[in-house]
Amino acid sequence: MISRLQEDNIRTLLGNGKAIIVIGPRQVGKTTLVQQITEKLAPNVLWLTGDNPATRSLFENISLARLKTVIGSHKVVVFDEAQRLHNAGLTLKLITDHLQAVQLFVTGSSSLDLAAELKESLVGRKREYQLFPLSFVEMSNHHGYLAERSMLEHRMLFGYYPEVVKNTPDRGQQILNELTDGLMYKDLLALDQLKKPSILVKLLQALALQLGNEVSYNEVAQIVGADPLTVERYIDLLEQTFVLFRLPSLSRNARNEIKKGRKIYFYDNGIRNSIIQNFNPLALRQDTGALWENFLLAERMKRNAYGAYFCNAYFWRTTTQQEIDYIEEYGGQLHAYEFKWRAGKPPRFPKSFLEAYPDSETSLVNQENFEEFVGVEG
Q: Helices (H), strands (E): how many in the chain?
C-alpha cells in the first residue's frame, strides 16, 4: 500500500466535530484513503455511495428522523461521491447539526454542485482536503528516492494515477485510455451542462496540443467549431472536475505585460498524453519541454496542497514575447522560476521583469535540482 501524505494531515484533525471532505479526480485513491483512515476509527462504518441509484433515491427527500434511522448506531459515516446525491448539503448539515457524535467523511470528484452546497450548509463545520494522483514525493517515500528518480521519464509519459503506477506500460496506457474515454466525463454528463460531447473531445485535444502555451479562447473556438463562451464554460467545467487547471498571467507594473492571459495544464501527464495518443519516448518527441513544465507544476500543486503552503501562482509574459514560466507570490515577495529539461547555461531573466519587480527572487529548475521544488526533503 502506497502511503498518502494527506492521511497524516487528516488524522491530526479527527474528533473535533468537523466533517472531513476529500475532493479530487476520479480514480486517484480517495475511497482507499478514507477506508484506511476509517477502519482504525470504528469496527462498523456506514458506507454510502452516490454512484448507487438506490442510495440517491434514499436521500432524495431526507428528514432528520429518517436520517437517524438510516445511520442507526454507526459512529462513522462515509458519503462517497457525494456530488451525485440530491440535496447533499442539506443531508450533511443535518448530520453535523444533530448527530454530532458521528464522524462524517465525504468524498467527491467534482467541486461543482458539492462545493456550492457545502459552502452554504457547512460553514465552520468542515475541513476540506484535495487529493491528487500520486506524487514524486509519495513514490520516493514508498520505494526510495533513487528508484523513483530513475522512473522520471516514465512518469512524464504515463503520469501518476495509482492503477497506472502499479501496472506495466501497456496496461497503464489502456487504463489511461479508459479514463479519458469515459470516467473523466462522467460528472460533466451527469450535470446536463454538457450539450455537445463531441466539442469536449476536440477541445481537450486542442488544449493538450497547446500545453505550455498561452491559450486564446477565440482561437480555440475556431479550432473546435464552437463560440468562445462555450469554450470558456467547458474549460471551467473541466477545471471543476479536476481534469485541468488554469494559470493566470501576472500583470501589475510593466506597461507591456499581458493583462488577461492564461495557460492551461493537466493534473496528470498521463491523461494529457492519452488525449493525444502519444506515449513515444522523450527522445522522439517535440514536446518534452511542455511535458516537463506540466510535470513540475502538477507536482508543485501537490506539494503546496499537502504541505499547506499558500501562495498566488502566475506566469509572466509581455507583448514583446518575454516570458517567465512560473511565479509564486508569498511572504510579500515574488519568486520566479524558469523550467529547463536539460541542464545547461542558466537563463537570463528579462530585464523588464527585474526592473518592475526588483525584490523578486529567481530560480532555475531542471533535472539536476528539481527535487526541492516538488517537495523532497533533504
A: 19, 11
Q: Which tens digits make up the pLDDT trace of 294-337?
A: 999 999 999 999 999 999 999 999 988 899 999 999 999 999 99
pLDDT at residue 180 in the model: 87
Give dist(CA 266, CA 289) in Å, integer. 14
- The DSSP bridge pattern shows strands 103-108 and 76-80 to be parallel
Residues 64 and 119 in one domain: yes
Fill in the DSSP letter of residue 321.
S
Whole-number Å distance between alpha carbons of 132 and 311: 18
Count other C-beta atoms under 10 Å from residue 273's C-beta: 26
Same domain (yes/no): 222, 321: yes
The amino acid present at 164, given as its one-letter code, is V
Residue where a domain stops, chosen among 97, 130, 163: 130
Enclosing domain of residue 346:
136-374
Quote the number of domains for the chain: 2
Q: How far is CA 348 from CA 96, 193, 337, 353, in A?
A: 54, 45, 11, 11
Please give the model's pTM, rounded to 2 decimal places. 0.92
Q: Do 312 and 329 form a contact (C-beta atoms < 8 A)?
A: yes
Q: What angle do CA 57, 63, 68 make, to 5 degrees?
A: 95
For 112-165, write each residue's pLDDT tens digit: 556 555 656 666 778 889 999 999 999 999 999 999 999 999 999 999 999 999
Last residue of a domain, one of 113, 130, 147: 130
Distance of alpha carbon 48 from alpha carbon 31, whole angstroms? 11
pLDDT band at 56 (very low <50, low <70, confident <90, very high): confident
Asked whether residue 186 falls in the same domain as residue 335, the answer is yes
